[in-house]
Amino acid sequence: MAEPPALQWNETGFLWRQWEVAQPVRQIRVMALYFKLADDQFRAEGPAYSDSLRCLVQQWPVDSPAPKWMGELLVDRAFDPATAHAELDRKPNSITAFFYHMSGGQLWLYGREVAYTGPPIRRARNKRQWRENNRRVLSWLIRNYDLRELDNDGDGYVDWILFINRARPKFTYGRARSGHYQGVANGDYLPSPVIIADPDDPDEPVIRGSMDARKNSGTYQTDCYAMSMRNIILHEIGHKLLGGGHRNRLQRWNLMAGSGGPVSLENGVVLSAWEKMKLGWLRPIVIRRDTLDVELGDLTATNQAVKIPLSGGYFLLEYRKNHLYFEIPYEPECPMIRGLGEGLLISRATGMGEPEILPANARAFRQARRRQARVPVHLFPYASRDAITPYTTPNTHMRRHRRTGLAITDIREQDGRVRFHVFLKYYESRLPRRTVWQGVITVGKTVVVPENGELIIRPGTRVRFLKHSGLDVRGVLRAVGHADQPIVFEPLLARTWAGIRFVGPAASASRLDQVAFRGAEIAIAREQGAEPTILTIRREMP
């Protein structure tokens, strides 16, 4: 028999040294502005704080206006193909390296880093004072630095200032009733609307506060004690690229996870395949027919993902591995922090909405949804789960009783890659009351036609059986082909399959004609009074 084709991948490279050195689609000059409150003495002391946090806090000492890692966050030179890789090698933890690699060489985010050394500013007691503090800091900046280089598009406005604070404000902010607040990309950190200009240089571009994240002149971050906490900065930059809002249905496996919903543990630290698609940084391999042995490299190293379009939406598959400088926060003086988990991530999108993860640990997922708790989702393969099919949990139901037929089976990892099979008309277990098969059908575990059910197989249909599965007919099976369009039953990925078993008097209404059996152990078995009508059939070698 002719098997479905196997996909052939073209590797796109590993880390930045494998990207083709070409002029990026976008170059954006930014400025990192480090700011520390005069009365900030936070040292993470006491039993309420972990040894790890105490170590990280020391990377920005309380007596310093800037962190120890100042100068490592950004490559300070514009893109030059002759020196780009050397610059990234010199600053592998930089956000320049992060976005250059995540974009596949399409975005070069660079600039200089400065520390606030103006008049002392103390902690705000409320949101109004906080905004005024921020305005004073930015007013000092525009008076002391020429910001013309930050007007990338020449519209008279500063584009990006990364306003990086050592410690968070302690007043209540928005939904964060405890004051747990780490960043914002729109102009809410300034009195809005606000324009900050240099009174001594009217031609210098102005700093603009706007509630539109893409028009606002910068982003605001707190709790940035160490380079390994740069995911806060990356997340806010993500808002400038993707717009407002969080993507919590993807949970922590994306950059834009955040407040406003149940997010599992910490926020994401790398872009998901879906986010890369929205930014035009990834073109997924599209699968529209059954495909055996799909081989997928991990998202960060190869920029690969699989998209499976179906009615009403699509499924997105990405393989996640932890890489130093990206998924694993790195701090040479502190203990290594674990990554976010490894394996095949399967998500489903309907319409234009963001994808929703299909969890491998479905039982925990259902319980957590009832409690509205945080959902710890594991990736495939997980425990005994190496497949996701229409009739098991987890499932690919679009809605109740509306199954897609998609199955992703035999998920296995080897040599830093993942392999699996994709079937688009897949069946197993008990069928609904009336089912029609046409085209190429794959049977996983033995399919049962219930006593009150009917299975109709159209002429020319090929039914393929995995793992010695078969048909257990307790109701009615109507498999009537034509001489020039026979119905074919055959094994797939095995030498044999179990055959068709008719059970009980209700199965006597079944009818088979112009059917070919290939590789069946027992083509037809009759039990408990079943007497189906069998006309023209033939047995063939597989």
Task: Provide an overview of this structure.
The chain contains eight helices and 31 strands. The chain has three domains: 16-244, no CATH class; 273-423, no CATH class; 426-540, no CATH class. It is elongated and about 95 Å long. Strand 14 and strand 15 form a beta hairpin. With 542 residues, the chain is α/β, with parallel strands linked by helices.
Overall tally of structural domains: 3
The termini sit apart by 7 Å
Question: Main beta sheet, described?
Answer: 9 strands, parallel
Q: Uncertain regions: pLDDT < 50 for 5+ in a row?
A: 6-14, 260-265, 364-373
Shape: elongated
- By DSSP, the count of extended strands is 31
The amount of helix comes to: 10-25%
Task: Count up the helices.
Answer: 8
Over all CA atoms, what is the radius of gyration?
29 Å
Strand content bin = 25-35%
Structural class: alpha/beta
What value does the average pLDDT take? 86
Features:
542 residues; alpha/beta; 3 domains; nine-stranded parallel β-sheet; five-stranded mixed β-sheet; 8 helices; elongated
Topology at a glance:
Layout lengths: L25 E10 L15 H7 L26 H7 L4 H8 L4 E9 L11 H18 L16 E5 L17 E2 L9 E3 L10 E3 L8 E4 L9 H12 L30 H7 L5 E2 L4 E7 L1 H4 L3 E5 L2 E8 L22 E8 L5 E2 L4 H10 L25 E3 L2 E2 L3 E8 L2 E7 L2 E5 L3 E4 L2 E10 L4 E4 L4 E4 L4 E4 L2 E5 L6 E5 L7 E5 L7 E3 L1 E4 L5 E4 L5 E2 L2 E4 L2
